[in-house]
Design brief:
This protein has about 260 residues and is an alpha/beta fold. It has helices at about 15-50, 55-65, 105-115, 135-140, 155-165, 200-205, 245-260, and strands at about 70, 75-80, 90-95, 115-120, 145-155, 170-175, 190-195, 215-220. The chain has 2 domains: about 10-50; about 55-260, 3-Layer(aba) Sandwich (Rossmann fold), CATH 3.40.50.1820.
Length: about 260
């Protein structure tokens, strides 16, 4: 007589352990998928909460400035001299969770007085690190410009360093590189604020060896982190003492000789 057994009729092991393993694997993968969706959803929500908006009055002043052409697209804010783009353009990458239009007021004099076209990007999720678009996405918006500087404020400057290999020059605004570009021959200018509580002068000095030896380092007296835009105070920053008109003039005065010295 044959006896009952956990083996199959052919003497093979039961398939129950295999089915159990598959159920465990399916449950684990499903749980990971749910966690990933929750993480992505949380990041998207976080990126949209607390975005620092452009102050209305300074932005309106730029939009009504007869010497500046203001264009708002889904990709970027484009500021051009009223008589058309010149030879040099600047792709400007905003800091984390700062509205692109918030930089229009501080860059207006650079456009009006120095003839530089400024393309202020609108990063994905308001965070430059998640924006994987190449520099050409923004330079192609103004095909008449021959030479391009890439730059950015705060974390936007860190992203600009990553794109610098595709540009003719690099401009850092209250920012510094995370990677080493000291061996390149790229023209670099770094503009800091003496009262910056986030990208402090000390942090910028510590990162100085990552830049080429001939990089131009300047500091604006009285400028804090938020002074590089017009979006109001920022958490963790120090209180600055410079006015917006003074900041505009200082930036234009520092960028003008840098732009003029670029090889043509």
């Amino acid at each position: 007589m044959s006896s009952s057994s956990s083996e199959g009729s052919a003497g093979q092991p039961s398939s129950r352990p295999r089915r159990r393993w598959r159920r465990v694997l399916a449950w684990t993968l499903g749980s990971l998928a749910v966690l990933l969706l929750l993480a992505v959803g949380g990041l998207v929500i976080w990126s949209q909460v607390g975005v620092m908006q452009a102050e209305a009055a300074p932005l309106a002043e730029v939009q009504s400035n007869p010497d500046v052409s203001f264009t708002d697209t889904s990709t970027a804010i484009i500021l051009e001299p009223a008589d058309g783009p010149g030879e040099v353009g600047l792709v400007y990458i905003p800091g984390a969770k700062v509205e692109a239009a918030a930089y229009a007021a501080t860059m207006a004099e650079v456009v009006a007085e120095d003839g530089v076209t400024v393309v202020i990007t609108k990063p994905w999720l308001n965070l430059a690190f998640f924006d994987l678009r190449p520099l050409s996405t923004f330079t192609d918006l103004v095909p008449g410009v021959d030479e391009w500087i890439v730059g950015g404020h705060s974390l936007g400057g860190v992203r600009a360093c990553q794109l610098a290999g595709d540009a003719d020059a690099l401009a850092l605004f209250a920012s510094y590189c995370a990677g080493d570009i000291s061996g390149s021959d790229l023209p670099v200018i770094s503009i800091a604020g003496s009262d910056d509580g986030l990208s402090t002068p000390e942090k910028i000095a510590e990162a100085r060896p990552l830049l080429p030896d001939d990089a131009v380092l300047s500091e604006i007296e009285g400028a804090n982190h938020a002074a590089f835009g017009a979006y109001g105070p920022q958490a963790g920053d120090n209180e600055g003492s410079i006015t917006l008109p003074e900041m505009r003039s200082e930036l234009a005065g520092l960028l003008a000789p840098f732009v003029d010295a670029l090889p043509r």
